[in-house]
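name: query_chain
kind: protein
chains: 1
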Amino acid sequence: MPYFLGLLLALVMQNLAAGPRVILGEFSHNQLNGWEQKSFKGETRYQIQILGSVTVLKADSHDAGSGLFKEQCIDLEQTPFLNWSWRIANRLTGLNEQSKTGDDYAARIYVLVKGGLAFWQTKAINYVWAGNTAKDTIWPNAFAGDHAMMVAVRGQEAPLNEWQSEKRNVGADLKKLFGEDIRTIDAVALMTDTDNSHGQVSAFYGDIWFSKD
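structure:
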C-alpha cells in the first residue's frame, strides 16, 4: 500500500476510534460563528487573539457582566462529554460567591436546558473557576436559585497563567443535580464577569466541543 494511502487510512481509523464530536467553539481557527453576546450589565470584551503559539478567545471584564452564548441542540446520549480548556490571568478574591454581591467569576462555561414557555423549568449548570470557593463545591446560584447550579471545577488551588483542560459528563451532572434523565441541552455559554463585585479580571478560553467519551 502506498505510504500516503496508509497514512490516510490511519487518520480515518483514528477519527472513528475517537467517536463522534460536536464542535461549538473553534477559537483556534479564528472563528466565532454562531456565538452571540448577551449583556447583563456593561460589556465584557471578548476577542480572538494569539497567545503564545495558539489562537484563543480572550475575555476582559471591568465592572461588567456579559457573556457569549451559542444555541445548539446537543444529544447527550450521543455526545455527553463537554470538553474545553481555559486559563486566568488574575483572581477575584474575597467574594462570597454564594451571595448576589459575590456572584462573579474569572471564567465560567455553562449549559442550558430550556423550559419552553414554562421559563421556571429552565435549568442550567455553571462550571466555574471560583476565586473563593473550594474545588468540587456545588451550590445554587444566588440569583436563579436551584434552577441554576454552580460547580467549582477550579478553585484557589489552580495556578494563574496556566492552561487547564476539562471534561465533564453533562448528562451525569444533570442527573445528579436535578434528579432527571435529560437527553438534550439547548445552548452553551461562557462568561467572565465582574459586575457585582465591581472588579477586573482577564481570562482565556480554548476550543469547546462535545464528545462521545
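note: The domain at 20-211 is CATH 2.60.120.430 (Jelly Rolls).
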